[in-house]
Design goal:
With about 525 residues, the protein is of the alpha+beta class. Among the domains are: about 100 residues; about 50 residues, no CATH class. The protein is built from 20 helices and 11 strands. Strands 1, 2, 3, 4 and 6 form a 5-stranded antiparallel sheet that branches. A hairpin with a 5-residue loop joins strand 9 and strand 10. Helix 14 runs antiparallel to helix 15. It is globular. The N terminus is likely disordered.
Length: about 525
């Protein structure tokens, strides 16, 4: 579903500059990549070198610390010797080595520029796949991106809005209050006294991103020649989704539209606030919105002063995201602490809607079914879910897959619900994906990323937080609404159109039991 510019608050005529060179979309990723020239080959070599050294670091470190890694061929003793000597020199502990490696990677990503800073921010959430030292260091990419020149920023603002900052704002900061991979933010006030945040995009950003995407497409095409090297990953799908997301994220008009849609979804929620968009001061490269005072959701000291606990914040976050994913089908896909703020009155404010995910009704239904199959310890149902969701081919022999799935979930199915964590479950699944040629569909990339980010926040502000346990009553509520709606539609269809057949009494009983459980949970939580 494409988000359009708000019709009730359209930008002022003539405000969007028709700079076709800078505003044209990046070349499509499908088809044969365009010629990149010498500069492209040098850039490709730089990217491959960083990726190869990163992979080699991880592999040799693992090789030095465990005997579980299988190494075949005549060079096996040599690799083990290199790994042991290189990674155990000077008596460094494993955590110290990984911290050094993580700092090295962060610096290389910053040097590679916006495209790779975004990639680094994305993998910083993958605590299920990377050592904790990498996660901690790469998370700094959210806050440590250097700003670009202030004079350049003001020049872009004037070029985009058609007037110098002094005529549009009664005041604007001489330094950005935040810098990110794609742009930087200034605090300003409007002539009417309203406090606003002004986001200005980095110069030549579209040209840089488009160039890098063409190079990455070429690299992915080369990876397809070695299918056994990275099993279980749909590289083309992941890159296509990353490309569509980052291209959409570069268009601040679309981001403003996302914010308006999000506001509409939560208009009846008093606990959620979405900053107002000032459409007269919005273009594809400049975004002006209401400035929100408050604190990051992880700032427990300040939150305690307004009598907000980590558990309360977690519960509100869980409710909002379950509504987005299971009911609305449109979700804020970048929930790191810098994009979520608790206001002085206790409301939760959302920022930065450039990265948004979409889930259709069919996928919502399958996700709800899978969630309850996990809760009900239903291995048979989980196998069908994995096939239906695209993790396993529909041609697979179910009898051979069933014991594999049962083995993965055995340690979790025997646990109490309160002892299950999504990240730990994902970590176990990652091993099975690689070992048994399962694949992770590209459409789940940002969904999984969002859930892992949410759980990371949850654990940081409340160590006893369990996402699955918090999600259960809300998922059951959405399931009840879906089934009741389907049953109601069927009943209306038969009453109005006189079709033969009867209503499934088993479904009515199921809904009654679900309603009873929901009522009991509400009573016990009250």
């Amino acid at each position: 579903m494409e988000v359009e510019r708000s019709k009730t608050n359209p930008p002022a005529a003539g405000r969007i500059d028709p700079d076709l060179k800078d505003h044209a979309p990046a070349p499509p990723l499908s088809g044969r990549p365009a010629q990149l020239g010498l500069r492209g080959w040098l850039r490709s070599l730089e990217i491959i070198m960083v990726a190869s050294l990163f992979g080699l670091h991880l592999y040799l470190d693992l090789l030095a610390s465990t005997d579980r890694v299988k190494v075949r061929g005549w060079f096996r003793p040599l690799l083990r010797l290199v790994a042991t000597r290189f990674f155990e020199q000077k008596g460094k502990k494993k955590e110290e080595r990984q911290r050094w490696q993580a700092v090295w990677l962060k610096k290389r990503l910053l040097r590679l520029g916006p495209t790779f800073i975004k990639i680094g921010q994305a993998i910083a959430t993958r605590a299920d796949l990377l050592p904790l030292a990498y996660v901690k260091e790469l998370s700094k990419l959210l806050d440590e991106v250097p700003p670009f020149d202030h004079a350049q920023a003001m020049s872009i603002l004037e070029h985009e809005l058609g007037a110098p900052a002094g005529k549009l704002f009664s005041s604007i900061g001489s330094r950005p209050i935040a810098a990110a991979s794609l742009g930087q933010v200034y605090f300003a006030t409007l002539p009417g006294g309203e406090e606003v945040a002004v986001k200005i995009q980095r110069p030549r950003l579209r040209e840089i991103i488009a160039f890098d995407l063409r190079i990455l497409k070429r690299i992915v095409r080369a990876l397809h020649r070695y299918p056994k090297l990275f099993r279980g990953v749909d590289w083309s799908g992941v890159l296509d989704e990353f490309a569509s997301t980052i291209i959409e994220e570069m268009d601040y008009v679309k981001e403003a539209g996302h914010a308006e849609q999000f506001r509409e979804q939560f208009k009846s929620w008093n606990e959620v606030h979405v900053p107002r968009i000032y459409w007269d001061l919005v273009t594809p490269r400049v975004l002006t919105m209401e400035f929100i005072h408050g604190w990051k959701v992880t700032d427990l000291d300040h939150l305690s002063r307004i009598h907000m606990s980590g558990a309360q914040v977690n519960r509100l976050l869980a409710r909002t995201y379950l509504k987005q994913m299971l009911e609305d089908g449109f979700f804020h896909a970048d929930p790191h602490p810098g994009n979520l703020r608790v206001m002085p009155d206790g409301r939760l404010a959302f920022f930065d809607f450039g990265m948004a995910g979409r889930i259709d009704a069919e996928l919502q239904g399958r996700m709800i079914d899978a969630f309850f199959h996990i809760l009900n310890r239903d291995v048979e149902g989980l196998v069908e879910d994995l096939i239906g969701l695209g993790f396993i081919s529909g041609n697979v022999d179910r009898r051979s897959i069933r014991p594999i799935v049962q083995q993965v979930f055995r340690s979790y199915l025997g646990l109490k619900l309160s002892e299950i964590r999504f990240k730990e479950l994902t970590y176990e699944l990652a091993d099975v994906v690689y070992e048994y040629h399962f694949r992770v569909p590209a459409r789940f990339t940002y969904m999984i990323r969002t859930l892992l980010e949410l759980e990371g926040i949850g654990v940081a502000i409340d160590p006893d937080f369990k996402f699955v346990e918090t999600a259960r009553p809300f998922a059951r509520s959405f399931l009840f609404k879906r089934e009741a709606r389907n049953l109601g539609n069927a009943l209306v269809e038969k009453l109005l159109h006189g079709k033969d057949g009867t209503i499934d009494l088993r479904q009515i009983l199921y809904l009654a039991r679900t309603a009873g459980r929901m009522l009991m949970e509400r009573v016990s939580n009250s």
